[in-house]
Amino acid sequence: MAVKAKKALVDVDKLTKAQAKVELMRLALELEGHDKRYYQKDAPTVSDAAYDALRRRLEAIEAKFPDLVTKDSPTQTVGAAPARGFAKVQHAVPMLSLGNAFSDEDVTEFVERIRRFLKLDADHIPVLVAEPKIDGLSLSLRYENGELVRAATRGDGFTGEDVTANVRTIKDIPHTLKGRNVPAACEMRGEVYMLKKDFLELNKKQAAADDTIFANPRNSAAGSLRQKDVSITASRPLKFFAYTWGEMSEPPADTQHGMLEWMDKAGFVVNPLITLCERVDDVLEFYNKIGEERASLGYDIDGVVYKVDRLDWQERLGFVSRSPRWAIAHKFAAEQATTILRGIDIQVGRTGAMTPVARLEPVTVGGVVVSNATLHNEDYIKGIGNDGSPIRDGVDLRVDDTVVVQRAGDVIPQVVSVVLDKRPKSAKPYKFPDTCPVCGSHAIREEGEAVRRCTGALICPAQAVERLKHFVSRLAFDIDGLGEKQIQEFYEDELVMSPVDIFTLRERDGRSTRKLMEREGYGETSVRNLFDAIDARRNIELHRLIFALGIRHVGEGNAKLLARHYHTIENFREAMLAAAKGSKDEENTTEAYQDLNDIDGIGEIVADAVVEFFAEPRNVKALGELLHQIEVKPAEQPRKSSPVSDKTVVFTGSLTKFTRDEAKAMAERLGAKVAGSVSKKTDYVVAGEDAGSKLTKAREHGVAVLTEDEWLKLIGE
Ligand SMILES: NC(=O)c1ccc[n+]([C@@H]2O[C@H](COP(=O)([O-])OP(=O)(O)OC[C@H]3O[C@@H](n4cnc5c(N)ncnc54)[C@H](O)[C@@H]3O)[C@@H](O)[C@H]2O)c1
Ligand SMILES: [Zn+2]
Fold first, then answer.
1. Which ligand is nearest to the CA of 350?
2. Which residues form the active site (predicted)?
């Protein structure tokens, strides 16, 4: 199972101390890089199995040379420090990791260790609670007098990231604890996760907007929770299972299973599969049963956690460095198989992105036949990431290679490694095409980007068809009877070449081509229904239209933000055309661009993509033609009647009554616009402590400056 490295590694037993020291340093550095990408960026570059193999080697070397173990070795630390951009939260009780068991013997040994430690006699077996190990990210929720006051990620175990506002959008998490038995201070802990079907759906949406694609449900849960824009988190289907706790002023039970029952009564979701086990055989049976059901659970689990049930025993057992002695994670083996890479195909997407796909000799991985696997991009094939870091230990992929395939998080098949010994002499490094396989246009890769794109936006059929498919997709125009299949056919017959053609189908019917009715699969009724369905969509919501345009990085969420901000299509179009005037300058200084960039939740990348779209005359022309055929409903405005509706507010300085995200969300709910910088359009500046240049600027412009309390009073809170 171990991933083969380029050079054979020296047996741990044969390492000299000097060699061990060097290798420990190298491994620590490599693991640290993986931890950063996994925990902070939610974008790992190696599989968990490859990561675990590196870790196990480091552990083996440390076991042989215990005096080489340093305080900051990966075996002594947890996770990674909080990422920049999040406020830090100190955990009252540290959040640790878990020791691992990979075999039945490891589990027996775990139980033996407990018995020896507690000096139990031979026939006295501690009762264990077996819990599915949910593959998400752990979260700590602090309740004071039953009210949720703070939520934080694990971070490095001691300090986590403040995600309070994000967490308030998760339905499974109660804002107030139920029942009479509520401790004054309690830190509830558990796992934030995403259902597999929701993950696939989200990735589809992300792909349609040419936005980040997540490797598995775990990364998408982490990436969705750890958002600076809370409205993005709110739009993601996150779920939560409670299973442990940190500080607990008056513990409501004295066993693990008792605590779980209390959590359920207090209003949390507790995993229904958790089982009390009296014998080692029972836990192993549970492990095997869950392993069989794994694929159909709906969410990913990567093992089973066994915990000593009696809390007084948990207390006595305590901790070793980064994990408790009273619990262990029994991991599932990764679902892997070996097969041959037969070829690499290039798919061209709606935005011209060229995605390589591996054509594999069909092979069964964990009960599912796999014949394709995504290869992500050019660098993934090369084995060297955009930032120069190695992928698969730096081994490239070649056609005819024997490769190890894995279903990551049970869902998307991935090529995790190459069996170099089996590489045929004739196998040549793969040369990524620099022209589009569909239209032959030049394909370029912009600096800092991983993706190579076809430049033939308007002449490239792959892009045109994909753009049209996107235009009629569910979150865009969503026209009954006009799906991907029909679009493909109509495009090939030159009936529909651009969006406006959809709306002139009826008047053009039979003019230069045969009537639709005469086409195979159509009759009088179905054609009438199609025309009616098209007509029904002549009146469209603004956010659907914006989404339908297929602008890079503009998914459903961003389309809604833009629609809400600009309210009507006229406003939006005018503002974007004004902003596009500055698009060729080194820095876009137009007021329209500043305003766009200041929308809460719209970053520079998105703003630039929108402006780029409007800077292309052919796009503007196509939109103009379309608007002759349709009517666009103004976006719904948030609550009108608040004292701050339509006012522009800037928050600055360090706020103590609420976080910056909460303040923004609150203001926007009341219909105010929240801007990032002070201008003459600003109505209020709400200043916390140490407010700097924005305060000075507010005074210059004569803008009203409020304290946090004055602001709360103004909005009537
Ligand atoms: N691919 C990479 O680059 C990369 C990088 C870093 C870590 N990883 C992966 O992350 C894992 C190691 O991370 P870790 O330190 O979080 O340890 P871990 O995932 O092995 O175990 C600890 C975690 O299990 C979770 N958990 C789920 N259900 C639980 C339950 N019922 N009770 C208790 N805990 C439960 C908690 O979040 C807890 O923090 C490994 O699987 C490793 O492969 C991968
Ligand atoms: Zn092309």
1. 2
2. 133 (n6-amp-lysine intermediate)
